[in-house]
Predict the structure.
Amino acid sequence: MAKIGEGDSRWIVEHRDDGANVNSWHWSEKDITLWAKTRVKELLVGNIKVKGAPGEAEVKSLIKVDGDATVYNRKGGLKTVYDLTITGKWEGNDGSEEVTKGEFKLEVFDEDPEIFITVEYGTKNDRAFKQLMEKEGIPLIHAQMEIFAGEVKHGGDLKLETPDEGTEIPKEALKPAEPLPSTATSKQKTTTSVKSLNHDLRIEDQFRTSPSELYLAFTDERRVKGYTGQNCEISTEEKGAFMLCNGLVRGTQIKLERGKRIQQKWRMEKWNAGTYSDVRMEFSEDEDGLAKLVLTQTGIPAEHRYETEEHWRRVILERMKVVLGIGTARYI
């Protein structure tokens, strides 16, 4: 190991007065939510038109698009995290003055979203138009979302600092990553059980890293800020306090054993005062050399059980895999 002041200057990242991120070496990120919401509207409204026995149906408008999308750039490579909930309106026309109306909804966080079609019953062809949208409309929506996912992989309207002209970037960094696996095919397992008025949660998942590094993904402030995109304060001492996601989650470290386990008293800010759950994370290595996480949480208030599970799955585990690059599949 070279002493301070020694070593090959080609491998030393020096401070620059101009703040330039030369060759995209340093971590940078950009919120592309506005672009994503605008692009989704462009792809769906006016582009989903189908014909069938009852007549013609098409997507007419979007009611709202909730969620966010962020691009991370490091060493010339892009990683993207997006999670959007889209609701919109469609109409069916059989050539008469009677118009059949309905709505559609989808959650977009990969190339294969699950799409739901509903109809306002009361017209003679309401069921027929609903079936037409389900049979012919859904595949068209899927196709448009594949276009969207492809554009997101390449940064959307990305304008982060890029490598200097003539700089060679590894081919692996230019290769588009494969999509997030859908919930149905993911190895992640989640079960929720009822216990009195509270609920318990159990999540099992695998990560392409070591148990010690996975432990740090939950306890190192720099890493947690990186993949959540929000402020945090994390004590690495037992009986120390922690705060995550700009104060959304708070608690106390009960037991900390690097690479083995974490035990916490854990609560969300909106829970009733004095209400805490018990979180236990166990880390081990499976037969494939992957780090295995078994997370159990007991004492979750019944009215917050779905929100709590969503926090772990979307805000913590999925983003951790993508941003830190430790997913068991190649994530977007």
Remarks:
- The longest strand covers residues 55-74.
